[in-house]
Amino acid sequence: MSTEAIKRIDHLARALKAPRIQKAAARLADQARDAGWTHEEYLAAVLDREVAAREASGSELRIRAAGFPARKTIEDYVFDHQPALRRDAILHLAGGGFLSEAENVVLLGPRAPARPTSPQPSDTRPSGQGTPSASRPPPGSWPTSPAATRTGAGPTACAPTPSPTC
Asked: How far apart are CA 165 and CA 56, in angstroms?
C-alpha cells in the first residue's frame, strides 16, 4: 500500500471511530494481493474484523457492567457437584444448535415444593377505619331531609370536603 493510501485510511478510520480498521487494513491488503482478492472481498474482510472486534468488546462491557463476581464458562463447571445433570446434554445445548435450527427447548426439572398458604382475611384494617360504604354515608355528612337540601337548611348542606365547592 502506498503511504498516501495508508494515511487516508488512518484518517477515515479515526473519523469513523473504528481503530481496528487501521490495524487490519495494511495486514489484510498484503494478504489480499497475494491471494488475488477482489476489492469487495478485501473490504468485506476489513469490515468483518471491525464488526467481530466490536461485538467482542460490547459483550465484554455488558459482562463487566452486570457486576458478576467472577467470570465462569461451561468449561469451568464441575459436573460432579450436580450428578443429576447429564454433561453431554448440557454441552449439546451450550453449542446452540437449536438456535440455528429455530427449535424450541423445554427444560423440565423437579417440581418446586408447595408453599404453605394461610387463609388471608379479606379486610386487615381495624374496624371503623375502612373506606365508607357507598350505600350508607357517615352520620352528619348529608342533609337530614329533602326539604333541607332544597333550602340549604339543616345540619349541613353538603358533605364536608376540603374543597370550597359547596
From this structure: 65
- Note the pLDDT tens digit of each residue in 27-52: 888 888 889 988 888 888 888 888 88
DSSP secondary structure letters along 24-48? HHHHHHHHHHHHT--HHHHHHHHHH
The whole-angstrom separation of Cα 115 and Cα 110 is 15
Instruction: Report which of 26, 23, 31 is spatially closest to residue 1, judged by C-alpha positions.
Output: 26
Q: What's the grid cell of residue 92?
A: 449439546
Place of cell 447429564: 86
CA distance 122 to 53: 59
Nearest to 46 by CA among 91, 5, 80, 77: 5
Burial call 56-70: b when 16+ CB within 10 Å, e when fewer: eeeeeeeeeeeeeee
pTM of the full predicted structure? 0.40
The predicted-structure confidence for 3-13, as pLDDT tens digits, reads as follows 787 788 888 88
C-alpha triplet 152, 155, 156: angle, nearest 5°: 55
